[in-house]
Design brief:
Helix content is 44%, strand content 3%. The protein has helices at residues 4-7, 16-23, 29-38, 61-69, 77-88, 93-103, 106-119, 124-132, 179-184; strands at residues 150-152, 166-168. The chain starts with a helix and ends in a 5-residue tail after the last helix. The chain is mainly α. The chain has one domain (4-184). α3 (29-38) runs antiparallel to α4 and α6 (93-103) runs parallel beside α8 (124-132).
Length: 189
């Protein structure tokens, strides 16, 4: 099976984060997706290996996302979508940029941030990532379309079905990474 690095035509690196997850008993991408599901990514819940969450102090959500985006990982658009959901639950772009640099995740991370900026144009989180990432473009059609990172907003009484908007998928319990954006949507007090 092709790796994400091969699909993106990038040089393969050995990922320290992947090695860490393997040392902690999570040897495959399927284990990482199951761990992400336990961390709130219910949208991707499926039958997979049984895992026990060691907690975010042992393995952070950002580390799970980095392992899934590693160019050593198997090429599977679902892994990229799970990673995007985990990243969108983070609140510190600096930590994301640091791990992206260490793991050479700039290409898929930029793609995710561009999709996020399209869906949530007022969210400073996506702007901050884009300003600090190099302008690398993946080969066309390799990474998921921006709509694959979203869900449709629920219809409320009186709304037309065609008026439904897209909401960026975040881990369960995380509304947005940007307080200003949340306030604009009326999600804060």
């Amino acid at each position: 099976m092709k790796t994400l690095g091969e699909a993106l035509q990038e040089t393969r690196i050995l990922s320290p984060v992947r090695r860490k997850l393997m040392r902690h008993g999570f040897p495959t991408e399927a284990h990482w997706v199951q761990l992400a599901t336990l961390r709130g990514c219910h949208h991707y819940q499926e039958q997979g290996p049984h895992v026990i969450d060691p907690g975010p102090d042992c393995i952070s959500n950002l580390e799970i996302a980095a392992a899934l985006l590693s160019n050593e990982s198997k090429y599977n658009p679902t892994f990229i979508r799970v990673a995007a959901q985990l990243i969108s639950g983070e609140s510190t772009p600096d930590a994301i940029l640091r791990i992206a640099d260490m793991e050479r995740l700039q290409t898929p991370l930029r793609h995710i941030a561009e999709a996020g900026k399209t869906i949530e144009p007022d969210n400073v989180f996506w702007t901050t990532l884009l300003i600090n990432l190099p302008p690398r473009r993946p080969p066309a059609g390799i990474l998921p379309h921006r709509d694959r990172f979203t869900t449709e907003a629920p219809i409320h009484a009186g709304q037309l079905r065609m008026a439904r908007s897209k909401l960026w998928l975040r881990p369960h319990g995380v509304e947005s990474t940007d307080i200003g954006f949340m306030t604009k949507l009326g999600m804060t007090t």
